[in-house]
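Morning run. Coffee first, then this:
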Amino acid sequence: MRPKAAAIIPAAGFGTRMQLKQPKQYQLLAGTPMLVHTVRAFADSSCINRIIVVVAEEWLDNAAHIFKEYGLDSPRLTITAGGQRRQDSVRAGLLELNDNISVVLVHDGARPLVSQQIILSCYETALRDGAAIAAVPMKDTIKKIRENSVISTLNRTELWQAQTPQAARYALLVQAFKNNGNADVTDEASLLEKNNIPITVVAGSETNIKITRPEDMELASAILREKTAMKIRIGHGYDAHKFAQNRKLVLGGITIPNSRGLKGHSDADVLTHALCDAILGALAMGDIGHHFPDNNDDYKDIYSITLLEKVISQLEHQSFSIANIDITVICQTPRLSPYLGEMRNLLAKTCKLSDNTVNIKATTTEQMGFTGRKEGISCHAVVLLQSYENRNNDFNNQ
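And here it is:
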C-alpha cells in the first residue's frame, strides 16, 4: 500500500499587489476561483490522501461554500484558519495531521497551474530522499546590485528559481518547525536547510507560475486557454408581465417610479426573469418556472435579484462564466432611459461582471400590441457563456 501523503495549501494572505477588493486566491480565473484550480489539482492526484487548505479566519465560511459549490467538499478536505505569516499557516496545517501521514507537500494557493507530474515527482522524491522542492533553472543573467550599480555577475548555472510543491517526510517537517521556534523563514526549504536536512530538486515548470500581480492573471489565463478547449453556449430568455395596481415596478432590480407595477408571484421583475431564463437556457437547465415555481410560497414577492444570484451559483458550479449579456426591454411606458445605467451596474455586480459586458436597451412597439396598448412590459435577453475544459485527462501534464 502506497504511503499516505497530505497537501497543505496556505491561502491566508490577501495579495495586495493584485490591487483587488478581495484576496487574490478567490479571484476568478477562466470562470473559476483561482484557489479552486489549485485545490482541484491535488484532489485529482492519485498520491494525495488529505488536503488541508489554510485560509484567513474571516474567510472560513466563504471558502467552505466555494469548495462545496465546485464539488470539492469531502472527508479528504479540511479547511482551517491560518496566521499572519506563511510559516504560521503551514504550522496550522500541520496541526491537522498526525504521523499516519508519511509525506507532506506544501503548495502555494496562488499557484493554480501545477501539473500532476510535478506533484507526483515531489511526493516520490521526498519519500525516497526525505525532502524535495520543485524548481526551474534561471534563464536570465543575474546581477548583484548595490545602490543602483552592478557589483558582480552571479553564476546562473548554480541558481534555480524555487517553486512549490515543497515536500518533506512528515516527521522531518514537524521537527524542523520545533527546532526553528518563531524565527522567520521564507519557505519550507529554508526551514529544512536551517536544520541541515538535504533537499532534492525536482524539475518544475515554467507554467507553474505564482500569481502575484495583475499581469500574472493574464498569463495564467493564456496558459489555461492553450491547455484547454473553450466551450461556448448561447441562451435566450423571454418574459412578459401585465400591469397591476398597488404594485411596485421593479426592473433589473431597480424600483422605478410609476403608477402601476407588474403582476406576478415574485416582484415580477420581467427583465431579471428574462436574464435568468437566458442563463438557464444556455445551461440546458429548463426555465425560471421550473426552479422557482409560482406555487411555492418561498418565492412569494421575492426580490428577483436573489433568484438571479441562485442562477449564477448554478452557472459557476458548472464552471461557466458569462462573456456578455444583451437585453431588450419592450414597453410604451414608463420611460426607462434614466434608469438603464443603474440597472446595468446592478446586474453586472450580481453576475460578477464588468459593466462593459452588460448591455440593456429599451424600445417601444410604436403603440402596437399589448405593450403598445400599455397593458404590460416584455423583455428579451441573450447571453453568451464560456468555459474551458481539459483537452485530456491529465490536465497539466507537461
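Residues 137 and 385 are 40 Å apart (CA to CA). Good start to the day.
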